């Protein structure tokens, strides 16, 4: 695909995400939650992470400035929503510190990272418990979303602060989540695991749950690349005496995930909203996240067959671009999805534009543009 076409699509997606008018958001009851960028939560956080990556790749100072402007407008909300699922916006702080040299970013990132390490709710096995800004409790539940929403920030904070303990904990959390959620038979991930009931609840191999890890794991490994990790205690919950074994297991599990995902891609280039239900509707945001992860993992040498992964991601990129409207709205995105009562219920989730749909698509296009420079 031509670089110019990718750039044009990325600019449209960015505009709708950061500057879309309320009249463009649609008429459904979730419009404000779905598209109001000025909230400190995971939805806007995914968009802001993507905007920062776009600005970094394109070397557009105005995009980085808009990310900083967003933080300055919305940081007043952050302390009142200190939950695992609202950590995502902090993932841009290391980049902003690098670009803007404002000590606020280092101080706040350190404060939040230590809160995660010392005070955030944990499940019995030590994984971050899924806590949210809404009035809902998910006691003893491990959700796939957390790897992207929280662990990515912790990994980037570890690098920024040169904190080996944080780096170790980020890797430990990735491994705890993969072990809890991965289906050994297919390599795919279930949406969530209930530590008390010891089951996967709906047992849905949900598209976007897999996407959060398909893209989140290589982003985390990239953040920690070259760090001096140190060792874990042999009695640690992961069961590892050192992180070299953990890294090998994470990479091995990621290969199984990627291979499982490539097998489930539809002929259209997209993935169904439940991966082992090919007749279910195709979902764009998760497809974008999966493709972005495949591109990134292939570039990082995480996959044994990088050509296959690139080809798979190329097909997905073309399909995702076909879902971008003239105004930049990404179509075919399922609404916010908790763990549902049944697999069939995932096929009933309504579809409308969201900030995470825009963000995952922008991440994919950003990576594709960067790749086009050397292809």
UniProtKB/TrEMBL annotation:
<dbReference type="InterPro" id="IPR012341">
    <property type="entry name" value="6hp_glycosidase-like_sf"/>
</dbReference>
<dbReference type="InterPro" id="IPR008928">
    <property type="entry name" value="6-hairpin_glycosidase_sf"/>
</dbReference>
<dbReference type="Pfam" id="PF07470">
    <property type="entry name" value="Glyco_hydro_88"/>
</dbReference>
<dbReference type="GO" id="GO:0016787">
    <property type="term" value="F:hydrolase activity"/>
</dbReference>
<dbReference type="GO" id="GO:0005975">
    <property type="term" value="P:carbohydrate metabolic process"/>
</dbReference>
<keyword id="KW-0378">Hydrolase</keyword>
<dbReference type="InterPro" id="IPR052043">
    <property type="entry name" value="PolySaccharide_Degr_Enz"/>
</dbReference>
<dbReference type="InterPro" id="IPR010905">
    <property type="entry name" value="Glyco_hydro_88"/>
</dbReference>
<protein>
    <submittedName>
        <fullName>Unsaturated rhamnogalacturonyl hydrolase</fullName>
    </submittedName>
</protein>
């Amino acid at each position: 695909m031509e670089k110019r076409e990718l750039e044009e699509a990325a600019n449209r997606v960015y505009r709708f995400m950061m500057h879309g008018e309320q009249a463009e958001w649609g008429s459904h009851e979730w419009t404000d939650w779905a598209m109001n960028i000025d909230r400190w939560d995971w939805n806007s956080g995914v968009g802001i992470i993507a905007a920062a990556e776009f600005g970094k790749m394109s070397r557009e100072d105005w995009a980085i400035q808009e990310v900083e402007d967003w933080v300055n407008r919305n940081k007043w909300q952050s302390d009142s929503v200190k939950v695992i699922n609202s950590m995502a916006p902090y993932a841009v702080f290391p980049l902003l510190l690098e670009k803007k040299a404002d000590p606020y970013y280092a101080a706040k990132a350190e404060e939040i990272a230590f809160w995660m390490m010392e005070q955030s709710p944990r499940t019995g096995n030590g994984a971050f418990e899924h806590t949210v800004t809404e009035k809902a409790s998910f006691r003893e539940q491990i959700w796939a979303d957390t790897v992207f929403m929280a662990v990515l920030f912790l990994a980037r904070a570890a690098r920024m602060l040169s904190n080996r303990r944080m780096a170790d904990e980020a890797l430990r959390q990735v491994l705890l989540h993969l072990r809890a959620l991965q289906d050994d038979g297919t390599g795919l991930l279930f949406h969530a695991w209930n530590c008390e009931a010891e089951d996967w609840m709906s047992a849905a191999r949900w598209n976007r749950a897999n996407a959060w890890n398909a893209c989140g794991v290589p982003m985390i490994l990239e953040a920690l690349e070259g760090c001096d990790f140190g060792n874990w205690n042999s009695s640690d919950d992961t069961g590892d005496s050192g992180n070299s074994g953990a890294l090998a297991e994470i990479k091995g599990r990621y290969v199984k995930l990627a291979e499982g995902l490539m097998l489930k891609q539809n002929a259209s280039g997209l993935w169904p909203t439940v991966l082992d239900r090919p007749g279910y509707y195709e979902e764009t945001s998760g497809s974008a996240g999966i493709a972005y992860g495949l591109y990134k993992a292939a570039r990082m040498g995480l996959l044994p067959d990088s050509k296959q992964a690139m080809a798979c991601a190329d097909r997905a990129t073309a399909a995702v671009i076909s879902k971008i409207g003239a105004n930049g709205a990404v179509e075919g995105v399922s609404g916010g999805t908790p763990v549902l009562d049944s697999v069939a219920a995932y096929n009933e989730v309504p579809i409308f534009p969201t900030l995470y749909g825009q963000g995952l698509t922008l991440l994919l296009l950003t990576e594709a543009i960067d790749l086009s420079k050397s292809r």
